[in-house]
Amino acid sequence: MLSNLKPQAPDKILMLIEEFKGDTRQGKIDLGVGVYKDPNGVTPVMRAVKEAEKRIWESQTSKAYTVLAGEADYRNALAAMVLGDVPADRTASVATVGGTGAIRQALELARMANPDVTVYVSDPTWPNHLSIMKFMGLPFVEYRYFDNETRGVDFEAMKADIAKAGKGDVVLLHGCCHNPTGANLTLDQWQEVVAILEKSGAIPLIDLAYQGFGDGLDADAQGTRLVASRLPEVLIAASCSKNFGIYRERTGLLIALTENAEARDLTQGAMAFLNRQNFSFPPDHGARVVSTILTDDGLRGDWMAELEEIRNTLLGLRDQLASELRSLSDSDRFDFIARHRGMFSRLGATPEQVQTLKQESGIYMVGDSRLNIAGLNRDTVPVLARAIVEAGI
Ligand code: PLP
Ligand code: TYF
């Protein structure tokens, strides 16, 4: 039976990790997979995470199962971090296996509620969005998002395309720090998106994987909070992988805002059911680390300070790269790098130019010319800038 399996196309981002490892050149630069690295190239365990783990180790007396939905302390604390004020009478939530698990289950929930659902997804988007929907056999339509000329959002095109989503369809939006482009909606643009969804009755699914990596924890949640305050039904897939640096702990949360308390209870039941079908109890360790941090003023403050250092490092690298490119190219055509937010920017280079950067300069970025800003440091920024200009980008 198993010999009937068809080979699966590998994940191009993950493949790049192996390719980079196999490159023996000195001075190679990894701008591929979206993992934060400090200026020494290390993905640190955050201070507050270490301390929370110590406290958990000292106080935990059992590893027995918890509850299908995941611990309430975690769900409440993370929902509050995402939403600010949580409307308890209409909020359902379950802990999931990472943000990816939350996305997967949001899509399954949408299909349970509406078997004819079509998902509208940005072009481009995180490749796993497409891969999961294809695997599920879920119909999806891409909406225009990125303007290749300005490297900003093509908002008129986006509006025209998402307006085609009908009642009961899902519109998948990146809450902040768009992956792979780095181009984001302004708050005014979020207002317009809300007005479109209000009119059509399509339901937003907000993928929030980088809260705190753009302009700050609250600033990055502004769009999500606006949507949550204005629309009757909203799905949110939150990830703690990046902002708590606990990638491998697989810590996510699916939040559903419903029309009323009755619908909340139905939705809560359906989401716990989905956990049971897919993996039963959700992972607990990462969730407990997060709730320990968020419910303790000292730990929370220290975590926020470290997250801000990370954010400022990214912003500093963006400014440095944009300014190096301004002087080397004698133009302002790379200024978008300073305007983009989050870990990524899409350069707008051709696949051939991306290949040249790899072959000639040992600089690895994803084939669509997405670069991970966190893969840089103050010394490698000028190297990248020179290589970009030399490759004729
Ligand atoms: N959504 C986007 C856009 C991402 O880039 C990621 C990153 O890995 C995720 C969701 C989910 O992350 P995780 O499953 O590691 O929590
Ligand atoms: O886009 C990225 O690089 C991150 C990490 O299958 C990632 O979101 C990449 C590929 C993948 C899972 C996570």
Automatic annotation (TrEMBL):
Cofactor(s) the protein needs: pyridoxal 5'-phosphate
GO molecular function, one term: transaminase activity
Keyword Transferase applies: yes
Source domain of life: Bacteria
Domain Aminotransferase class I/classII large: 28-388
Gene3D superfamilies attached to this UniProt entry: Aspartate Aminotransferase, domain 1, Type I PLP-dependent aspartate aminotransferase-like (Major domain)
Pfam families xref list: Aminotran_1_2
Transferase among keywords: yes
Annotated keywords: Aminotransferase, Pyridoxal phosphate, Transferase
Coiled coil location: none
InterPro entries associated with the record: Aminotransferase_I/II_large, Asp_trans, PyrdxlP-dep_Trfase, PyrdxlP-dep_Trfase_major, PyrdxlP-dep_Trfase_small
Sequence similarity: Belongs to the class-I pyridoxal-phosphate-dependent aminotransferase family.
NCBIfam families reported for this sequence: PRK09257.1 (NF006719)
Subunit structure: Homodimer.
Name of the protein in question: Aspartate/tyrosine/aromatic aminotransferase
Species this chain originates from: Paracoccus fistulariae
